[in-house]
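Field reference: sequence -> structure
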Amino acid sequence: MSQPEPNIDEVVKSIAEETDTPAETVSRMYADTLADYRHDARVFDYVPLFAAKKVRDKLRQNTHRKH
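Structure field:
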């Protein structure tokens, strides 16, 4: 049984708020990361989850480097 697709707007909003990053930037990063994962994936169930985690982690790293 496959996982339901998460609401992309909610994912983007959540990451944007957590990382203090503009939603446009997060949306672009998420779409690019999701496309990269989907290109190489054989199983797609958790691809949106992995993409969100990668974007969130990357933005958090950038935030920590600025401080």
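Note: The radius of gyration is 12 Å.
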